Amino acid sequence: MVKLDRTVLEESVTDTTYRKYDSNLPEKVLQIGEGNFLRGFVDWMIHQMNKQGIFKGSVVAVQPTPHGRVLPKLKEQDWLYTVILRGITDGKKVDEAEVIPAISRGINPYEEWEQTLKVAESDELELIISNTTEAGITYMQEPYHSDSSPLSFPGKVTALLYHRYKHFSGDVKAGLHILPCELIEENGGKLKYIVKRIARDWNLPSGFLRWLETANRFYDTLVDRIVTGYPKSNAADFASRLGYEDAFFTVGEPYHLFCIDGPAEIKQVFPLDQAGLRVKWGDIEQYRELKVRLLNGPHTMMASAGYLAGADTVLDVMKDKSLRLFVERGFEEIGEALPFGDQEKRDYAEEVKQRFLNPYNQHYLQDIGMNAVNKFKSRLLPTLSRYIEKTELLPNSIILSLAAILVYFRPVHMNEHGIVGRRNGKNYQTRESELVSKVLANCWEEYEQEKISIEEFVFAVLGNRAIWDEDLNEIEQLTQTVSSYVRQIISMGMKETLTQMLQKNYSSLT
């Protein structure tokens, strides 16, 4: 069977995948990140605009970390990949596939920094878009070298903007629109703050700081589409159906929403609404709070707990009685802490549950578990604090999910990608920031060597301000409760721990 490339696209006779396209569209977008979500959401949207002759621009994808593996293989496919949307919309089944030619090329900045800088010099460049996970928009002190890429995402943005500033001699018309898609509150504002801090670290000229402030626009955003990525279990079926092999089949749900808050000119630069795409302009706080708490929160809750209990996908979790009850209770705890009307919270939660029950998508828990500690910090820790403040009780399901995350990162050994854990006699690869992986690995090693107890292990992790920006041991009874759950998970397994927690605290649900 042939492999996907531009020849396949041009010669294809499959209505669902063949689209006429201009392979020489100007490179309007510098995209930091090349993962499934950006390809299945933003790049898919850009293609929808291009098909209608609205945007008329392409994407340069920049590898965010030194260990990226996507771009070299994507290059072999002429930067093409297939987005497959499956689900139920308005009561009707949706199952459609489309080749996306939005990416013009990719760059590894650690080996091709000069090419990255050339993109920053382009008159055609208008936007920087990113998704480097919640861990990406964090401050890291690092040196500035004009001839090599910074390691951090904000460092790259700072260096690229400074190079553009110099190249265009500070012309305000050369400013860019910057749309971070990382799921943290005020993502645009926080990225801008860190970029300015890095500029000061590097002693960049005051003129650059003024240009940064006046010529560029950083937007707070919210993105919403469940993208499950490569269909590991049925890729061959898709290949047979479409008539070609694709190493980057990207599966997602039909539902999508892009919320953008900031100056009105973004509507002209990035006219998503003109293409009939679901976009909200202006204040995004309500959408963000509902989505991050009631969709991403339960995702993070179920990822480690579900995986340790034997589930592999979100659908597995939702079909398992005890895991489903655990998630249902999580929705209740999260809803209790949200400052919205009861009906609004219930309606949104029910919509999310239906999306979790989508029978067509396989959303792997290990993928959701990427950067699980940082995700818990941004998605669930605020909920935990609000719940305690409102009820003067501990949200047991949320706390059990935190304990599960700590056990999920219990190492069998370490490799270049981080901690390798073990479930049912088989190893699994975890993905977390270098800081979090080192802290957890070191604390687990001390426990395994009997230098510290479970309580001391939990105390050390929860008290690490570099991870949490606060000492979580100061939350009354949190350390003791997490320690108890960690001990139970180790001694009796995740499933039994979960069952006992539900029977003890929520017998009315069973």
Automatic annotation (TrEMBL):
Catalytic activity: D-mannitol 1-phosphate + NAD(+) = beta-D-fructose 6-phosphate + NADH + H(+)
Alphabetically ordered keywords of this record: NAD, Oxidoreductase
Residue span(s) of domain Mannitol dehydrogenase N-terminal: 28-263
Enzyme class, first EC level, given as a word: oxidoreductase
Domain Mannitol dehydrogenase C-terminal: 283-489
Domain of life the protein comes from: Bacteria
The enzyme's E.C. designation: 1.1.1.58
PANTHER family: ALTRONATE OXIDOREDUCTASE-RELATED, MANNITOL-1-PHOSPHATE 5-DEHYDROGENASE
Protein name: Tagaturonate reductase
